[in-house]
Design a protein that fits this description.
single chain, 454 residues, alpha/beta, Rossmann fold, Ribosomal Protein S5, domain 2, 9-stranded mixed sheet, 7-stranded mixed sheet, 25% helix, binds thymidine-5'-diphosphate, binds magnesium ion
Length: 454
């Protein structure tokens, strides 16, 4: 018999090679390559050469009923799923350890169970007594959720196949272990194999399966991105440890829009839904101060106002610092470069700090102008009027580009008591929602007219 071939897999990006190396060629990470025996290579020899089954082909016009969805009654959770839980779907919920994934999913499980779904919560990390204790703290002891503590995938599959629940929570996929694979729980091979089997189960039996996945320091689901490809929906649970806000974000969803967010607040008795996130994100805002700018953003299908805070100060270091929380560092460098070369505002010898208040991570390019305004406001020591919001994309030439959903942005700003907006000129704006608009063609105009600099 041929010796089983040994292969080496990077635990960070799942790239495979046939020799060990200190650094992964594919992702550049160090010390992530481990030896693993490959999964059995599909159908055995006996099947080779056998004829397959003929496929039934359909056409695009075939009518498909929308998937029936179950509601948890938590609007913030249902919206992120695309309007409720879809049967026969696999969902991955990723997040830092301790951010509140188990709490959120226990609460959701309880809601779904009370709505009539047969719901299992299988923990590989905590004893059932611990989960019960948490349930008591959350006031959920009466919910008909079935608990088990188990890490053996074989035992779990047997139980699921017999019981056929509507919803199963697996907390967490890194603790699960399949005896078909010869490597430690949490390794890429194990996570891939167990996630594959659970996803297949979801499709085969029509259950919804939620996999909890811990995220590494680098912000990836520990080990494999492969799980992201396997499942239908990928949600991330984000937030700053010190803050009470938590954001559930869909980064992939085969059954709804991606980039949708649900906002929660961590309280002594679990996660509470936040129905008006703008009010919450702006609640800590004090008097108008230099460096503070309110951005009228869109998260998924919903407008959200957030405060950008900037600080610009002479640096004591030879290399000035650029520190960003909640936004992209590369994009900040681009905006500083545009301010320097197009508007003549130098940042040599100055540290620049940028922060999105409340722990939200903003990724819209529409935030460019808010970032530039916050930096200019800090640098020139000029506060923007307290009642104004800012949005717009900046191009490398220094021109401002109109952004989508302007009406929704203005409407949300008006709802929260703002009366004016600084925005790119040339947007086809139909409704102004009672807001006065200062339309700017380029960044130089903003520098001169708003901040009297340049
Ligand atoms: P947990 O759900 O265990 O996080 P994860 O599963 O993502 O690792 O949440 C852990 C934190 O949440 C813990 O630090 C305590 C806090 N917490 C509350 O503040 N209120 C609560 O009601 C509960 C249950 C937890
Ligand atoms: Mg947990």
């Amino acid at each position: 018999m041929a010796k089983p071939q040994v292969s080496f897999t990077c635990q960070s990006c799942a790239a495979r090679s046939n020799k060990w190396a200190g650094q992964c060629d594919a992702c550049g990470e160090w010390n992530t390559i481990v030896e693993e025996t490959p999964l059995s290579a599909g159908p055995g020899k006996a099947l080779k050469g056998a004829r397959g089954r003929r496929l039934t082909l359909t056409d695009l016009a075939t009518k498909e009923a929308p998937p029936p969805r179950s509601s948890s009654g938590m609007d913030e959770f249902d919206r992120v799923l695309g309007g409720g839980l879809v049967p026969a779907s696999a969902i991955l919920v990723g997040g830092d350890p301790g951010i509140g994934k188990s709490t959120l999913l226990l609460q959701a499980a309880a809601r779904f169970a009370m709505a009539g779904l047969k719901t299992f919560y299988i923990s590989g990390e905590e004893a059932s007594a611990q989960v019960r204790l948490r349930a008591a703290r959350l006031g959920l002891t009466d919910a008909p959720v079935k608990l088990a503590t188990e890490t053996s995938l074989r035992d779990i599959m047997t139980t699921l196949d017999e019981e056929r629940p509507d919803l199963v929570i697996i907390d967490s996929i890194q603790t699960m272990w399949s005896d078909n694979v010869e490597s430690a729980p949490g390794s890429v091979s194990q996570v891939r194999a167990t996630a594959q089997e659970l996803t297949t189960f979801a499709k085969r039996r029509g259950s919804a399966v939620v996999l909890v996945g811990h995220v590494t320091k680098e912000g990836q689901i520990a080990g494999p991105r492969v799980v992201e490809h396997m499942v239908d929906t990928v949600l991330y649970f984000e937030g700053e440890r010190g803050h009470q806000f938590r954001i559930l974000r869909s980064v992939k969803n085969r059954f709804g829009p991606a980039d949708e967010i649900g906002v929660f607040e961590m309280t002594g008795s679990g996660l509470a839904e936040v129905t008006n996130p703008s009010a919450l994100f702006l609640s800590e805002r004090g008097k108008p101060a230099p460096g503070s700018v309110v951005f009228a953003g869109i998260e998924g299908t919903r407008p959200v106002l957030v405060e950008f805070q900037a600080l610009v100060a002479p640096t004591p270091h030879s290399q000035p610092r650029r520190t960003v929380v909640g936004w992209d560092g590369g994009r900040l460098a681009m905006i500083l470069a545009v301010l320097e070369s197009r508007c003549g505002i130098p940042f040599t010898g100055l540290d620049v700090y940028l922060n999105v208040a409340g722990g939200l991570k903003v990724s819209e390019p529409a935030a460019d102008l808010a970032v530039a305004a916050a930096i200019l406001s800090a640098r020139e020591d000029v506060a923007l009027p307290a009642d104004s919001v800012v949005f717009g994309e900046i191009s490398l030439s220094g021109a401002l580009r109109p952004v989508g959903q302007t009406e929704n942005r203005l409407k949300e700003a008006a709802k929260l008591g703002f009366t004016s907006a600084i925005a790119p000129a040339g947007g086809k704006i139909t409704g102004r929602e009672g807001m006065s608009l200062r339309e700017m063609p380029d960044l130089t105009a903003v520098v001169g007219e708003v901040f009297g600099a340049g």
